[in-house]
Amino acid sequence: MYYERSLSKAPVIELEEAVKELAETGKRVKVLWQEPDALTFVARGREYRSEFHINPSDEIMYMIKGQMNLHIRKEDGSEEIVVVPEGGLNFTPHGMPHSPRFPPDAFLLVSERVRREGEADRFQWYCPSCDALLHEETFVVSDYRADPVSKAYSNFFDSEEARTCGKCGNTMPRPEGV
Question: Among residues 53, 177, 22, which one has the least CA distance to residue 115?
Fold first, then answer.
């Protein structure tokens, strides 16, 4: 069920149907609609999520099912965890490095705007041993249905060089299921 723009329609989405579809298919993202100023999708948790996403758009996140630990990196570089319970709503401003972590049987509704010309999403991984920046992936996201998060993960975890810390030499292991 993907919304096609029409002035004669006002879409009504059954979230339970979107959740059921993701659970049954194993897919990670279901785009509900994607318009010039509005992008809304349901995401299923990734048990291996570890990167920080830097989005050029503000995000509103609603925890449909389960609980999310939203890791954020503050301006001073320190990390904080914001717990978003089932039914909880969160606002994450553009430019804030954040990492929504929740299990594959949990589901999140995300609403943001489509990227403008020249904007790019960034995905950053930090060394689990010394907290140095390990790697950054940058994507121009013109269509969220292409699942840029999965592509960023593949690029990172398929490269031992990207996963090896230049500061302390630690190599982040490649998790199962990526």
Answer: 53
